[in-house]
Design goal:
With 370 residues, the protein is an alpha/beta fold. The chain folds into two domains: 4-119 and 353-369, Enolase-like, domain 1, CATH 3.30.390; 123-342, TIM Barrel, CATH 3.20.20.120. The chain has helices at residues 62-77, 86-92, 99-117, 121-124, 144-157, 172-181, 200-206, 224-232, 246-255, 271-283, 297-307, 355-361, and strands at residues 4-21, 26-39, 44-49, 131-133, 135-138, 161-165, 186-190, 214-215, 237-239, 260-263, 287-290, 336-337, 340-342, 362-369. Strands 5-6-7-8-9-10-11 form a seven-stranded parallel sheet.
Length: 370
């Protein structure tokens, strides 16, 4: 039984190595929180709150998540000792939505549970992989020469899949350029809900580029028009923002809205729901791969451990630490070697916190429970 003795919240910001542009806007730094949960034995588990500062990706923002964690979720989490981590999901269902807030606490409990058991997530997930082939996401570039230069650099580093962020009037030309440069590479497009059915002629042209998939072309709550589009295309559609729960995956599968799922652990409320989605995808022949949320090293370690399961065969958006950040808050940074990332060997999520770096980038601390 896990008896929670303390919950601490650290608010941090990490500057990006360069601005990253999507159809939503431009990101120059990433704000995030660490939720550190301590048990009666002094063991600690850490989870990362990754909600964005604006309500553009989904409706949840980091300020909203902080309020929900403090006022709604922690009272449910600490009401009694916890037997095992799946219990957290059941407790927190009393609060509607707010999946990223829930995931920050739930993943911290999973980390704490594994460290108490002296095992890694890889052992809990019964994973056999020790390294992962991974892909990388490219932002919107107005300069084609710079886009090509960046793409060549990442391919030379060993990334096995390129994903390009697109939006209306920035789609056919850059993707054609990349396809011509890399005729056999896994190449895909991510629209972040930037298109409508009025853009069908453009999407049909993208269908000729032998893309691995087109991610989230339409509105994040739409399943019907995605299903219509999938019938028109030979290229698989992948859903991202739509997928908050297993029921969303079931809806998409039943309607034929997609052939692939970009699974993000924070967006679905944590590890328990993510495991259910992976099982459903395996049983129903849906491609599932792991996406990223500009996580720090803590979230990245979790993603690598989770993606080491045998059900993940498509390279996910789990790039090396230096892809987005000059610096990190863990000692065991993710480094690309021969095009692959090693699965962390440590207990729990595998992250080894760097207290000096945490102090450098933390701008506020708060004790939420004791």
């Amino acid at each position: 039984m896990i008896q929670i003795r303390k919950i601490e919240q650290l608010q941090l910001k990490l500057p990006l190595t360069s601005p990253f542009e999507t159809s939503y806007g431009i990101l120059t730094e990433k704000a995030f929180d660490l939720l550190i949960i301590e048990d009666e034995l002094g063991n600690q588990g850490v989870g990362e709150l990754v909600s964005f500062q604006q309500a553009d990706y989904i409706e949840e923002t980091i300020d909203m998540s902080r309020l929900i964690i403090k006022n709604e979720l922690i009272p449910l989490l600490t009401m009694s000792p916890i037997k095992e981590p799946f219990e957290v999901q059941r407790r927190l269902t009393k609060v509607q939505g707010n999946f990223m807030a829930k995931a920050a606490l739930e993943t911290a409990i999973w980390d704490l549970y594994a460290r108490r058991k002296n095992v890694s997530f890889r052992e809990i997930f019964k994973s056999t992989k020790t390294e992962l082939a991974v892909g990388i996401s490219l932002g919107i570039h107005t300069d084609s020469a710079k886009l090509l230069k960046q793409a060549r650099m990442y391919v030379s580093q060993g990334y096995t899949r390129l994903k390009l962020k697109i939006k209306p009037d920035y789609d056919i030309e850059p993707l054609t350029l990349l396809r011509k440069e890399f005729p056999h590479l896994l190449l895909m497009a991510d629209a972040n809900s930037a298109y409508t059915l009025k853009d069908l002629p453009v999407l049909l042209k993208l269908d000729r580029l032998n893309l691995a998939m087109i991610e989230q072309p339409f509105n994040q709550r739409d399943f019907i028009e995605h299903a219509y589009l999938q019938k028109q295309l030979k290229t698989p559609i992948c859903l991202d923002e739509n997928i908050r729960t297993l029921n969303d995956v079931k809806t998409a599968h039943t309607l034929g809205s997609c052939r692939g799922i970009n699974l993000k652990i924070p967006r679905v409320g944590g590890i328990a729901e993510a495991l259910s989605i992976v099982t459903f995808c395996r049983e129903h022949n849906l491609t599932v791969w792991l996406g990223g949320m500009f996580e720090s090293g803590v979230g990245r370690c979790l993603n690598i451990q989770f993606a080491s399961q045998n059900d993940f065969t498509f390279p996910g958006d789990i790039s090396a630490s230096d892809r987005y950040y000059y610096d990190d808050i863990i000692k065991n940074k993710a480094c690309l070697t021969d095009g692959k990332l090693a699965v962390p060997l440590g207990k729990g999520n595998g992250a080894v916190l760097d207290q000096e770096k945490i102090e450098r980038y933390c701008y506020k601390k708060e004790l939420l429970f004791s």
